[in-house]
Write a structure and sequence with these properties.
Blueprint: E1 2-3, H1 16-30, E2 36-39, E3 54-57, H2 63-74, H3 79-104, E4 114-115, H4 118-127, E5 133-136, H5 150-161, H6 164-171, E6 174-177, H7 181-185, E7 191-193, H8 208-215, E8 222-227, H9 236-245, E9 251-256, H10 271-279, E10 285-289
Parallel strand pairs: 1-2, 1-4, 2-3, 4-5, 5-6, 6-7, 8-9, 9-10
Helix pairs in contact: 2-3, 3-4, 4-6
């Protein structure tokens, strides 16, 4: 059983994590396993759904639906109260999803229950009493990711008093980490490190000069690309600071990714995206926006 909850599983609008879940389920199917995926109601047509995959839709808001409710909350609450309100709303939504999943499925029939969100992993283990295999994509508490901002301090405070991800990892059958920092922090937990990778069959090597000519770049330019969402956890502000400090002839930075924090070109830029765009003035930086890889 793979737990999605994005509302975009098997659609053309999958983000990176949902696409990881999708590719993983397809590989298990190719290997001859029986696979079930649980998700909320689709936010887009599931045109990519494999015919031999069992999909179960349960109650709950997708992150997109929750974001719309967050936008309405902004008009009613002050900053601090809004953050607390939204954190509680998010946890209630996750609990609703987990309870609905428990009613729709008997988890004991699955050999593996795989979860990508620590809140869901923690709730499945506490509310349903079932140990999961958890993939830790972004343990924010493990490092410093947004300077001394209020968001970072609040996040670290919440994790200090409510360390749900740590409890989820310690209670899991196994945890997949992207780097060796996590087993160093939690040596008493069963953690397997599987670094980010790629499928070499999807890449075609090109001569650098030919590639630059095809993209319209000069051979003497020093090109740096950033590919990802423009949000604090990705550290775009730190990258801009590095560009401002660098003394590299011909340096050019290209930033490719959604300014709205999502995985499409439709969303409006966030306050953080607008701030880094303003900081990039007079720097050799170009924002390319969201570019689909499909």
């Amino acid at each position: 059983l793979d737990v999605a909850r994005s509302g975009f599983f098997a659609t053309e609008r999958m983000g990176p994590v949902t696409n990881d879940i999708f590719q993983l389920t397809r590989q298990f199917l190719r290997d001859g396993h029986e696979v079930t995926t649980v998700d909320v109601r689709a936010e887009a047509p599931r045109t990519l759904l494999p015919p031999d995959l069992r999909l179960v839709e349960v109650q709950g808001w997708s992150p997109v639906g929750a974001r719309a409710r967050r936008n309405r909350a902004r008009t009613r609450l002050g900053r601090a109260a809004r953050r607390l309100h939204l954190a509680g709303q998010h946890r209630r939504n996750q609990a609703r999803f987990v309870r609905s999943m428990g009613r729709a499925l008997s988890l004991d029939r699955f050999d593996i229950v795989h979860v990508h969100a620590w809140g869901l992993a923690y709730l499945i283990q506490t509310l349903l009493g079932h140990r999961v295999v958890y993939t830790a994509h972004t343990p924010n508490w493990a490092g410093r990711w947004c300077d001394d901002r209020l968001t970072h301090r609040l996040w670290r405070t919440l994790h200090k008093h409510l360390p749900h991800e740590i409890r989820a990892i310690r209670g899991a059958r196994a945890t997949v980490a992207l780097g060796d920092y996590l087993p160093r922090l939690l040596p008493d937990s069963r953690i397997e490190v599987i670094p980010n990778g790629t499928d070499p069959a999807l890449w075609r090597r090109m001569d650098q000069a030919a590639a630059r000519a095809a993209l319209g770049y000069r051979r003497d330019e020093f090109l740096v690309y950033f590919v990802g969402r423009i949000c604090p956890i990705k550290g775009v502000h730190t990258l801009l600071d590095a560009v401002a400090m660098a003394d590299i002839p011909g340096l050019r930075l290209k930033i490719m990714g959604s300014a709205g924090g999502g995985f499409n070109a439709d969303s409006e830029p966030t306050q953080y995206a607008r701030s880094v765009m303003a900081r990039s003035e007079n720097l050799p930086v170009e924002f390319l926006g969201f570019i689909s890889n499909r």
